[in-house]
Structure formats: structure tokens, C-alpha cells
Amino acid sequence: MSEKEYKVEVKNLCKSFGTLEVLKDCSFNIKRGEFVCVVGPTGCGKTTFLNTLTCLTEPTSGEILVDGEPANPEKHNLSFVFQEPSAVPWLTVEQNIRFGLEIKKKPKEYIDERVENIISMMALSKYRDRYPHELSTSAEQKIVIGRAFAMNPDLLLMDEPYGQMDIKTRFYLEDEVVRLWETLGCTIVFITHNVEEAVYLAERVLILSQKPASIKESIAIDLPRPRDIASKKFIEYRTHIVDMIKWW
Amino acid sequence: MTNDSELLRQQARQQELKYIKNNKRKMMIFSILSITALLLIWHFVVTFRLVNTRFLESPVTVINTIITKFTDINPDGGYLHQHIIESAKVVWVGFLVGSLVGIPLGLFMGWYRIFDHLIRPLFEMVRPIPALAWIPIVLLFLGIGVAARSAIIFFGSFVGIVLNTYVGVRQTNQVLINVAKTCGASNFEIFYKIGIPSAMPMIFTGLKTAMGAAWATVVAAEMLSASKGLGYMIQMGRMYGEVSLILAGIIVIGIFGLISSWMIGCLEDIVLKWRPKNHEN
Question: What are A201-248's pLDDT values in tens digits?
Fold first, then answer.
């Protein structure tokens, strides 16, 4: 495969805070338009990994290339869905979805069209003038996902976005992400500690090892969508990944 | 799925708000009760001569004084509305200048390290000085006009505004900063899109505290240098031994302090309409 088809190339990435090594020699590539889930034991440095990817923290050594260039949020279209609720409380649903596009200074017509599209896709039109606190947690998370997709990101990073949700809401929002990904097409890196979620969503699962984290294995999930979490193949994948995480 | 549950949520929310509103109405009875009780006790204390009535007059007399003072220029040479306008002018000028200087200063100090290190030591030195201590210097520089009294109000309101604004910006949610950062926003963009709106609730807390302080200082400022104003009127009441005039001044100040706070509260409700309305005040 030629270099150009890789959206993200991570080369020998290391990150340490003082003497604490968090990431050790991580190298992997993510293809354009791929949906990758990263799983690993709690506290293995998943969030550090993402923060380094978005330049919120500087890597100690190694490099991250997006489209062959060093990652830079001002140049690249990155979007981030955080673990914590991150809808801007003083903006309405619509203004929240516009937020990223306005920072990117896109032309107004483009923003209008794009936001309209997202709002109707996510069935948020009834709540467009509401404030986040007036909605439920799952709806608030939908706003954040909508905001992320509205930016038409080259790379969408999601950091355990459904960590605090109940099962029903989680499945609902997972389907939402898959639908948006299939329709709008972008590269997604999705971090989770929920193995079932990873197998349900990903085309490929990266398994991180215990701290200092490095890539332990990369597994392609070859299942048709929509996926059946009770199917035999699904359970095989799941069991395998769980074994990998436990096995050190 | 979400639609239905969202709808239910909204309905529940409306019910809750209705309940809060009703409850507030019920609670208002208690507020009215306490004020009435105070007035009644005051009235009986005076009518049954439980205190020296040379020093205290009944609320009825005081209310009468307030009403007649609108048309009677004696004994201090001013109508009540002239005094009110004079005081309100001083309070609002000092308060507005204090806000115009204090809010930006607090914002910049809270957001930019350099500003913090540059201004903080100076500010900490000025902070403990009571507003009234500035009076002699202010009189020397600005004479005894409105400007001088406003300057004293400025010193009284400015500190609280700066401090609250500063804390407000400092408390900006890091997650929201990261959201803007990953969108590619510059530091200044993050400051005005995230930092300033985050600070708004604390800014209003500061403004309300400062407004209280402003009305408290205006009396002292006017007692020292004025020919009109509620503080001056109280001072005159003392000179002429008219207790009802003093009490009238005190009550009018209370009422106008209340109105000023209420005005800021209304502005707050407009600016912060995005805030959850759970609080019962």
C-alpha cells in the first residue's frame, strides 16, 4: 500500500511525564476513511495517546503525521469528542454545532447548509434553539457528535464518549456514529475500554498493552453491518480481544 | 426513542418550574410577614414610649416625612427627588466606571499570565485600602463635585468586580478550552469565545456585591462633601435634630439599593438565560 493512502502515520511515538513513561514506541498507520477502535486496560494511557494525537500535549519523541505532515489543529481538520460532557452551555444546540465551523472561518452559506444537514440527520430540529442543560445527557452527547461531524473532519477522535451512558443509549448513539460515518465518511479513532463496543463499531481494533503502552496487536474486524452482538463470530472476536487484554 | 424521552423531560421540567414558581409565591408571604412584623414592632415601641421618642419616630411619621419631602425644601435646602437623583448619579457613575475598568482588568488578569504577574502585586496592595481612606486625596485632586464622590464609589466597587471576574475566568472548564483548541482556535479566540462567557456568572456576582458596596459608600462620601444627596440629607437631619429625616434617608437608600440590585438581576437574567433555573432566588 502506498504512503498516500494513510491518513495518520504514527512513528515511534513516546511520551513520558518526568520519569513516568506512558507511551513507549507506538507505531501504526490508519487508512483514509477507516474506523479504528483503540482498547486497553484502564489507565494505560489511552487519553494521553489521543491528547498527543491532537497536539494538546507534545510527544516526548517520535512523530505523528496527518496526510504526511506533522499534525497541527490549525491546519488539519481534527475534531475531538471528549469523555466529559463538552457542549458549550451558553450556546444553543444549533450554535453548538456551528461552533467548530465558525472557528475554522468557513463561509456562512457553507456553515448554514452543513449545520442544516447535520441537524436533520440527527433529528435535532425540534431542539435547535434549546440550551444543552435543557436536554438529557444522551442528547447533549449527540450535540457534541453533531458538532464534530459538522466540521467534516479529516480525523475524528473520540475518547470514551459513551463511558457514562446506559446500554440502551449507548447502542443508540453507537448506531448514530456508524450511520454518520457511513454517510459522511471520515477517519475515526475511537477510544474505549468496552470491548463489545469496539467490536461493534470498528473496522480494526488496536489493542494497547499495560503502561508504558505500546501497540500489542491490530485486529481487523470482518463482520457485516449492522452487527449482531450475539452472533458466533462477534463473540469470537470479543473473547479474543478480552484474552489479549488480560494476557501479560 | 430520544424524541419521546426528550418530550417527557421537557414536560417534567415545566412542571418543576411551575412548582418552583408556586413555591416562591408561597415563600413571599414569609418575606412580607417579616417586614410587616418589623414595622408593627417599631410602631408600638414608639407609640407606647418604650424608647426615648426624641431619638426614634414611628414609621407612620417617617413615611409622612418621605412623602412631604418631595414638596418641602426645608430644612436642608433640597427636595427628596433631588437628593435621590444626586445620589443615584454618583453611585451609577462610580459603579459604571468601576465595571468598565474592573471587568476587563479581571478578565485579562485571569487569562493572561503576564497581566497577572504585572498587575496582581499592585492590585493586592490597593485591595485592603478602604474606599473611604481615599476621600482626603480624592478631595484634593477632584474637589468636592460629583466627580470626587464618584471616584470614591469607584474605589469601593472596583475591587469586588476585579476579584470576582478574575476568579470567574480562572474557573473556565478545561474541557471547553480543549474543544476550542482542537478546533484550531487561537488563544485570543478561546479567550473571547470560551473564557469570557464562562466568567459571566461570576462577573454578575461581582457587580451585585459592588452595587451594595456603592450605596454603602455613597452615604459616607456625601456626609463629608456634598450639598445634595441622601447622605447629605441624613447629615442635615442630624444637625437639625430631625430624626424622621434621618430615618427617611435610611429607608430611601434601602429602597434604591434594592432597585439597583434588581436592575442588575434583570440584566443577569437576560445575559445568562442559558443557565439552568433551579435556584429559587
Answer: 989 998 888 777 788 888 888 888 888 888 888 888 888 888 887 755
Instruction: Name the residue type at position A41.
Output: P
Pairwise CB contact (< 8 Å): B184 & A75 = yes
At B42-84, the pLDDT tens digits run 888 888 888 877 778 888 888 888 888 888 877 777 888 889 9
Calculate the alpha carbon distances from A22 to A48, A214, B55 in Å: 8, 9, 76
Across the interface, of A80, A104, A133, the residue whose CB is closest to B276 is: A133
Chain B CA closest to residue A92: B274
Could you say which of 3.90.1150.10, 3.40.50.300, 3.90.79.10, 3.20.130.10 is the CATH number of the domain covering A3-77+155-246? 3.40.50.300
- Alpha-helix residue ranges (DSSP H) falling in B48-145: 59-69, 80-111, 113-126, 135-142
User: What percent of the residues of chain B are helix, what percent strand, and what percent coil, each to the nearest 5?
Assistant: 80, 0, 20
- Angle subtended at Cα A49 by Cα A43 and Cα A55, rounded to the nearest 5 degrees: 140
The answer to whether the Cβ–Cβ distance between B1 and A88 falls below 8 Å is no
Q: pTM of the full predicted structure?
A: 0.82
Domain boundary among B56, B83, B101: B56
C-alpha cell at A48: 494521553
Instruction: Return the residue of B nearest to A53 by Cα.
Output: B182
| In-domain check, residue B281 | no
The whole domain housing B77 covers: 58-271
The answer to whether A205 touches A39, Cβ cutoff 8 Å, is yes
> To the nearest whole percent, how much of chain A has pLDDT over 90?
11
Q: Report d(CA A57, CA A77) in Å as an integer.
A: 17
Domain shared by B127 and B17, yes or no: no
Let me know whether B252 and B122 are in one domain.
yes
The size of the A-B interface in CB pairs under 8 A is 79
Q: Give the amino acid at B50.
A: L
